[in-house]
Amino acid sequence: MKTEVAIIGAGPAGLLLGHLLRAEGIECVILERASADYVLGRIRAGVLERTTTDLMHRLGIDERLKKEGLLEEGFCLADGERLIRIDTLALTGKHVTVYGQTEVTRDLMGAAPERGLDIVYEAEDVTLHDVDSDAPYVTYAKDGRTHRIDARFIAGCDGYHGASRRAVPASAGRSFERVHPFGWLGILADVPPCHDELIYANHANGFALASMRSKTRSRYYIDVPLTERVEDWPDERLWDELALRLGPEAAARITRGPAIEKSIAPLRSFVFEPMRHGSLFLAGDAAHIVPPTGAKGLNLAASDVAYLSDALIGFFRRGCNEGIGDYSAKALARVWKCERFSWALTKLMHRFPDDGPFERRMQVAELDYIASSPAAQTAIAENYVGIPL
Ligand code: APR
Ligand code: PHB
Questions:
Q1: Is residue 166 part of a domain?
Q2: Number of domains into which the chain is organized
Q3: CA of 178 to the centre of ligand 2 (A)
Q4: In this structure, are 256 and 294 located in the same domain?
Q5: Nearest CA to ligand 2 atom 8
Q6: Model pLDDT for residues 22-70, shown as the tens digit of each residue
Q7: Are 363 and 202 in contact, with CB atoms under 8 Å apart?
Q8: Residue 305 is assigned to a structural domain of this protein
Q9: Ligand 1, from 19, 32, 47, 339: best to mutate by most atoms within 8 Å of Cβ?
Q10: Nearest ligand 2 atom to alpha carbon 296
Q11: d(Cα 333, Cα 388) in Å, to the nearest integer?
């Protein structure tokens, strides 16, 4: 089989890219290792920047997002008894939208058949070939047969553990990585949120986050050492800890309920440079990971794909090579700014095991500064709503 762009991975990055290309009549095929049900079963973050909702709008796949997404005008940083509100709407003129990544994926998947976007699920042993050349190809196994797709370009949207990044020779790439010494234990429950805006809390016991998916579904997190297991945290223990860490005001309004989902996710900062090698482009988690503080993961995947689709549309529709050449540098400039923000918010809101009294005083001073300075609040707000493309 022959196509113009072979896309590896049907997460948000691959699906968004596929739709943006199909909207311009560019041929592409998505190869996904997992089943559609498996992809939809993954619970991920749920805060969309304007840059991401604008892309869904441009595609006309935002009907449900507009109806069900919650427009958020601000969020809070909790520091002991104090709540510092960051009024993102007043400071930047922009909202963020609470809408689960799983729902974004569901909407993009659902719109694929009517838009002629081919997705091959359960494609095994996806292997990239000749990415150095102008005629790369991908092989995969399905239903006991080996298949081959020839393409002009390959887009590696297959996440951190995917095959694409590994197709770049070691001498041609460089990784930057910090593994943070804890994970986030998350609970999803069908109970009303304790607050109508997100609360990120820094407590002596550690970090907590109160988030939501809707007015009747809540998502909460605490940080835990990586040695802990989900079984160590029966629901009641987790609710008690959340109430303590989020502070008395939020605690008074927490509604407890049984967990629909509970899992621990490690925290990592990772960037791979460059994001293009020959005819292979990397986008989303395949090229970078941010810790979840600030919810930049999906949004960064979306901004990569906005740049990449522009570059590919320029190439196929106008015969222009410039966007292709600029993609990596352009995407990385934004990636590093989001890495910085996610890392800074992680440092501010977590108690790191190696931190002592000095580091704690630094956090207190910074939170004090943020509480009293509109300039500091604006800097946080403009990163939170998403720096412009
Ligand atoms: N072959 C084919 N598909 C693969 C392979 C492979 N070898 N390896 C992984 N995949 C698929 C995964 O099953 C997954 O569906 O690639 C997809 C990658 O999707 P995501 O991990 O969701 O990554 P991305 O689309 O870049 O989205 C980034 O998702 O991981 C979150 O927090 C992250 O919010 C961020 C967003
Ligand atoms: C979530 O709702 O799952 C969420 C929200 C904000 C974050 C991370 C996760 O920073």
A1: yes
A2: 2
A3: 20
A4: no
A5: 295
A6: 999 999 999 999 999 999 988 888 899 998 999 999 999 999 999 999 9
A7: yes
A8: yes
A9: 32
A10: 10
A11: 12
